[in-house]
Write a structure and sequence with these properties.
CATH topology of the largest domain: Glutamine Phosphoribosylpyrophosphate, subunit 1, domain 1
Number of strands: 24
Strand content: 15-25%
Structural class: alpha/beta
Largest sheet: 8 strands, antiparallel
Oligomer: single chain
Low-confidence stretches: none
Helix content: 25-40%
Bound molecules: fructose -6-phosphate
Shape: globular
CATH architecture of the largest domain: 4-Layer Sandwich
CATH superfamily of the largest domain: Aminohydrolase, N-terminal nucleophile (Ntn) domain
Number of domains: 3
Number of helices: 19
Length: 592
Amino acid sequence: MCGIVGCILKDKKAAPILLDCVRRLEYRGYDSVGIATSSSSINIKKDSGKIDEVHEKLQLDELPGKVGIAHVRWATHGLPTRENAHPHTDCDNKIVLVHNGIIENYQELKDQLQEEGHHFRSDTDTEVIAHLVEKQMDGGNDFEEAVRGATQKIKGSYALAIIHADYPDTIIGVRKESPLILGVGDDDYFLASDVPAILEETNRVIYLDDDDIFIIRSDGIIIKDVNGHIKEKNIDVINWGPEMAQKGGYDHFMIKEIHEQPEAVRNTLSELDEIEKTVKNFSKINRLCFVACGTSYHAAMVGKYLFEELVGLPVDLALASEFEFSAGALRPDTLVIFITQSGETADTMKAMELAKGKSETLAIVNVMGSRATREADHVIYTRAGPEIGVAATKTYVSQLTCIYLLAACMARDNAILDELGKVPDYMTTVLEQEDFIKEISPQYRDAQDFFFIGRGFSYPTAMEGALKLKEITYIHGEGYAAGELKHGPLALISEGVPVVAVVPPGKSHDRTMGNVKEVKARGARVIGLGSQMDTNLRSESHDMMGLDDAISELISPLVYVVPLQLLAYYISVERGINPDQPKNLAKCVTVV
Ligand code: F6R
């Protein structure tokens, strides 16, 4: 997904800093890069390609000036070409901007502007904004009034940063439904779509609300509301160190983040008091509904099993992108729980809008200050720290930890808290088996299809194992409730097809073992995931990942996912793929 940054620096050139900042946004996935600075004139360098390629060709850091904006683009409107790369400009190349988000009514605006004589150079939706600002200024407005006027014409989501040749000391921007924060250094000012981009420069940030317009000059930042009234905003201090957004000796962020999971769970467990306070608001709740996308949806699936078993409340489950088609039954005694690590996923936010006012809303979020944290009635934070790899790992187990804590508080069940306390150690013993998983991964490098099966609490784990595999290895992977195999998917099992069976000791064990035998009889290559004491599973498995026998079925989703993350990671590396930046995927999906 696109990323934007900008800065006004006191003593240093902006371009080298902007280049460093956009490099830290690479993890979001992108296909083009561009930088514009403002000095005695406007200077722009941009092209399609990876940052290193474009930098080698254009020397992106060799632009004069202490004021600048930069962008990494993930193509939506128009191919990844130089013309479509940001920054975009007005007819006279005086107004220059970068944009994240989508302008929904861009075509009608573009038609009208073209009729009025504006000359467009790209196929993007973004370029209309530059021409709208130009039109407003031609009508006599100053820069700030023109930006406000232009944003009143556009529909959609946007995080915008704009510079102007006649205002060489100024960056003006707006945020609506797309992430954007401001950074405050000693004498330097920043903007970014994501905290890690500027964490090396400052850890003091201002979170913006929708429709806020900001004006950055070398002497400070002014933030105004939609009507032009100045807003007082707090400066928050981020307690992540810059090293948390670096690889720290690991080959990839993903493997570093897999290893950070015991600590992420430990940190999230310390949220118990906050969660207990939040739960006091839910005494009138009779029904729950979990809403999320992707990996977060798998955490929601675990939530359904857990709350039904521990709390005894009926629980609905909805993919956020489907919620608008099934949100009719929302009632005041329902708590809708939105799970989103980024707090910005457009589908999830749209679902939250639908639920607000009809039911109580709770967001479980990793990113402070994100949209979900401002819009939900209640918020619980996961304490995973920054997650840079596109594939969610430590944020997933942190979400699960929050869900278990929430269920334990609502059920007043202390036994589960004792078990949760052991999870970091269980995870550490799994991580000690990393070499074994690395050793077996080459045999699966050329697999065409993979199946993951599990029942009950292991069904979401099977789904998550399959999602991790397809995301970062590009191998087709399907997660199934093991009992469903005989209703169709068994037809797909043939000689040598890998089937990962998630079979912790417990209620589902014997039934899933029956399914393991079924697939083995049809030639499947079984990768067993169960207790290290499970001799039955071991004898049926071609490869067996044995976990601590004390891990109960109820708690197993938190630990059993770890070997599946490792398996996907090592197969990805075997296939020569960069697991941190899988093709076609973005860390934060801000389009519906
Ligand atoms: C998978 C992954 C995605 C996200 C999904 C929701 O590894 O990361 O499936 O889980 O896009 O994102 P959030 O949790 O930010 O709402």
